[in-house]
Structure formats: C-alpha cells, structure tokens
Write a structure and sequence with these properties.
Elements: E1 6-9, H1 11-18, H2 22-33, E2 37-40, H3 42-52
Length: 53
C-alpha cells in the first residue's frame, strides 16, 4: 500500500499558483490527481491574504 503525501505549500508556491505559472499549476494538478493532500499553514494563509488586498 502506497502512503499518501501531504504537500504543505509555502507562500511563494501559492503566489505562483495565483499567477497561473504553468509549471507550478501542472505539478499541483499531478499531486491532486494522485489523491495526495495539499495544505497551507495559517501563517502562509495570513501572508497571502494580507498581500492579496
């Protein structure tokens, strides 16, 4: 049985996803397609939302 991975994204990765960087977006789609989990911590959420205003 294969273990599932939890990818904990940092703020730089989130920003690249928001900018639609094709390399980063494709890598995240591959990760989701394999039923792994993607997470962000509360500090990263705050950083991204604060800078997104």
């Amino acid at each position: 049985m294969r273990k599932r991975i939890v990818y904990n994204l940092d703020s730089c990765t989130i920003i690249e996803i928001l900018r639609s960087n094709p390399t980063v977006v494709n890598n995240m789609l591959k990760a989701v397609g394999t039923k792994n989990k993607i997470a962000i911590c509360s500090v990263v959420y705050y950083e991204v939302m604060r800078g997104y205003d």
